Please model this.
Amino acid sequence: MAKAKQKEKEQLRQEKVTETVSKTQQFLDENKKTIYAGLIALLVIGLAIVAWYKFYYQPKRAEAIDQMYPAEANFRAEEYDLALNGDGNVLGFKQIIDDFGSKAGKDVYFYAGACELQLGNYENALDQLKKYKGKDSILAARAIACSGDAYVGLEKYKEALGCFEKAAARADNMFAAGYLLKAGVVCEELGDQEKALGFYKKIKDKYPQSMEGYDIDKYISRIESQQEAE
Model:
């Protein structure tokens, strides 16, 4: 009896498998033109993407990188207007962005923003710096600090303070001391001497060998003297 039931179950399973295979085959037979068309479309799209990358994107990227060299050289030479705007013979960062976007690398936004900052174009500097999304922690911290400098130029000290604090947290190295010093100076501008003193003491404790660390005692002494006088 048990064997008969088992045989019956097995027969039913085989019938379901056969039915499923039959339906699948029927679906393929009825829709093979659509399926083939879809596969061909995917193949064409794939080939188009490969062709676009090889024959458009890669050459454009190579051209963009070539254009970056003279602009970067001008930036290092502190020729900020030339680095940003070019001179008709070589492109500046602004034109490189217009023509190539970030194909030469995301650093182009940092360079453009830093140039705008040096030229006193603070709003433009912020616009460019906010577009920089690089992963290098040192350059990312510098971009944030440059945004802080731009906010200082616009006399938006609270926003500037937030940038300097964020930059110092992002770059836990000797560069952080400079960002902490700027944060302290901004706090003094905001009238918060206690918070400024905290930043200065952090430099003394954590970064005594930095350039800022060598002179930080005079900042600390000045505030402490003012507090004692009060």
Summary: The chain has a mean pLDDT of 81.
